[in-house]
Design brief:
- The longest helix has 33 residues.
- The chain is an all-alpha fold.
- It has a domain of 44 residues.
- It has 4 helices and no strands.
- The N and C termini lie far apart (77 Å).
- 61% of the residues lie in helices and 0% in strands.
């Protein structure tokens, strides 16, 4: 079965359709960021990735301590100076019993 003339794709038809769209303002402007803006965006993405990785490591450390039966005796929240001091005070050989 032969294709209808509308379905035939040629460069001439494409260029005519493109010209019509331009003439009727069907296309809108697109903002292209500068190289500096791209660098800032990449830096922010990298920072967010590192923050997420740090959060995961902290969760893994707390889970490891809980599995080994070590519970922070302090009343404050985790990752304070006092909590870090408590973590450092744990004997390494006791962690792997």
């Amino acid at each position: 079965m032969a294709k209808s003339p509308v379905q035939k794709k040629t460069d001439k038809r494409d260029s005519e359709a493109f010209a019509r769209c331009l003439a009727h303002h069907f296309y809108h402007e697109v903002y292209v960021p500068t190289a500096d803006e791209e660098q800032v965006k990449e830096f922010i993405r990298m920072r967010d990735d590192h923050k997420l990785a740090l959060k995961k490591v902290k969760q893994q450390i707390l889970a490891f301590c809980l599995r080994r039966g070590f519970v922070y005796p302090g009343s404050g929240s985790h990752w304070t100076v006092a909590h870090l001091k408590w973590l450092r005070s744990l004997a390494p050989e006791a962690l792997y019993k």
